[in-house]
Design brief:
This protein has about 350 residues and is mainly β. About 10% of the residues lie in helices and about 45% in strands. Strand 19, helix 3 and strand 20 form a beta-alpha-beta unit.
Length: about 350
């Protein structure tokens, strides 16, 4: 049995996502509450940075004599750049605060300055219903939000989270998203392209403050620029000029004009996270029974070919030959026969397949 890599491309399922605080805090919603993307659902106070300043060494005096040069005391608020200790007049030696904060301790020729704490607001980032509050020993860490809707997982992404209205700007999955297609009506939307986009289109999207981009491929030369964008970008197929697979493009095209949440974050350790698009559906929609992930490859499975020469093609497994076959490279590999709509099924190595579910 072979367990292939799985990518979720589902027009209707039950979506559950954890929304976690970076530190214990206060959850502002209850189980059963309806939430929307910009809503603050939890809040935490994050401690500020701190710095131990070696005042005596910086002024060049013994620790026993440094007190006469210090201009602040524990409990005093200080501003970034404020002089907190000074020795001399004409060619004075000074010590300044590294940031806005408070002096919390002083002694032994040193001084501890702590930055002010900051408030972290956790937003829902999606429409849905709170189905669980995550807590441990009476401390709140986050919530789980549930909604019926469509899910599209990407192969690569960058940026954080966002939400907006989907705006499909290409007619086909193999069309390049050009700058000319991005007009002022694109402001505040999530742009959907075909096989990729040009550098000019990336710059134009940034100028118009779009909320996200979803394309099939991305030129390697644009990776560094994409990672610096103020909005998420999701690549569904991979790096390079790769047409978006038809099931994904069709699903996005069908939902053109609807609100969606996008997340460009990737995490490969401590819980795998893939970039994704979530398109919620009306609350009264009843999703079909969920398919369990991690099942072996079998005849009838919908798969996508992920490597050349048929990268991006989607089809159905019609046979799983028992014996290995020799490829053009001379290697003998086990594979599957896949019907992609041509006259005869394609034989693809198992390593070149991923299941779409």
């Amino acid at each position: 049995m072979y367990y292939p890599f799985e990518t979720q491309v589902t027009p209707l399922t039950t979506i559950r996502r954890k929304r976690m605080l970076p530190a214990p805090g206060e959850v502002l919603v209850r189980i059963g509450d309806q939430v929307d993307p910009p809503q603050v659902i939890a809040r935490a106070e994050l401690p500020g940075d701190f710095r131990i300043l070696p005042v005596a060494r910086l002024l060049g005096v013994p620790a026993s004599r440094v007190k006469r040069y210090i201009r602040v005391k524990p409990g005093d608020d200080v501003q970034e750049g404020q002089v907190i200790a000074k020795r001399g007049r004409l060619f004075a030696s000074t010590v300044t605060s590294p940031f806005n904060g408070m002096v919390t301790a002083s002694g032994g020729g040193r001084m501890l300055v702590e930055a002010r704490s900051t408030t972290f607001d956790l937003r829902a980032q999606m429409y849905g219903t709170v189905c669980n509050v995550i807590q441990q020993r009476g401390r709140h860490y986050g919530v789980v939000i549930e909604t019926p809707g469509a899910v599209i997982q990407g192969a690569w992404g960058a940026g954080g989270e966002s939400f907006g209205v989907l705006k499909c700007l290409t007619e086909t999955a193999s069309e390049l998203l050009e700058a000319e297609a991005i007009d002022p009506s694109s402001q505040g939307t999530i742009l959907v392209g075909g096989r990729g986009l040009s550098e000019a289109a990336l710059e134009r999207a940034q100028q118009l403050q779009v909320r996200g981009i979803v394309v099939g491929g991305l030129s390697p030369e644009l990776i560094a620029q994409a990672e610096q964008l103020p909005f998420p970008i999701i690549v569904t197929e991979g790096i390079g000029a790769m047409p978006m697979s038809q099931p994904i493009f069709r699903l996005l095209k069908t939902n053109d004009g609807r609100e969606a949440s996008v997340n460009g974050q990737i995490q490969t350790r401590g819980g795998i996270m893939r970039p994704e698009v979530i398109i919620p559906t009306p609350a009264d929609t009843v999703p079909p029974a969920e398919k369990q992930p991690g099942v072996p490859l079998e005849v009838g499975a919908r798969v996508r070919l992920v490597r050349a020469p048929h990268a991006g093609k989607v089809g159905t497994v019609v046979a799983l030959p028992v014996h290995a076959r020799r490829m053009e490279t001379g290697a003998k590999v086990h594979g599957a026969e896949v019907d992609v709509g041509q006259e005869a099924p394609l034989f693809a190595p198992l390593a070149n397949l991923e299941v779409l579910r």
